Prior knowledge:
alpha/beta; eight-stranded parallel beta barrel; 8 strands; globular
Amino acid sequence: MRLPNLYAITDPIKYGENFEQTLRKVLQRGVKMVQLREKDKSGRDYYNLALRVKEITKEYSALLFINDRVDIALAVSADGVHLPANGLPPSVVKRIAPHLIVGYSAHSLEEALYAQKEGADFITLSPIFKTSSHPEAEPLGLSYLKEVSSKVSIPVYALGGITWEKIKLCYKNGAYGVAGITLFL
């Protein structure tokens, strides 16, 4: 399966009160892959939102990934799950839900190699540039993106501080695609 190149990650604050309307705008811009990222919702609220988001992504023929919660991904028939570095190992998810596409948040070459060895289908590598969502994080930079992309065989999505002006630089330095929260708003 070929994955789309643009990967939107939702944020309850940045998407605002009109969450579903904002999501539709993002999808109208041509994004075909969405990660529903809700760290503070209860399981039930996350599930109910995921059901609504699944209907919207279906309308736009976009893939839906659930952040961290394999149970919710399975419950709403999402396309995949995106695992944080401190989450379940990708091999465990592949064993219990082999049909799910598994993404993994990597912040180093070691984490990228681990994700690949564990069976992840793709990684996000972050932060490539300085980002307001994690101001304390030191940017990895384009040369590091190039190094990681050359040493793994799975798609690498550049994440963190990506702007429309920087997308080409990411592709020139080995990124398969770009991911972002504010990038698509």
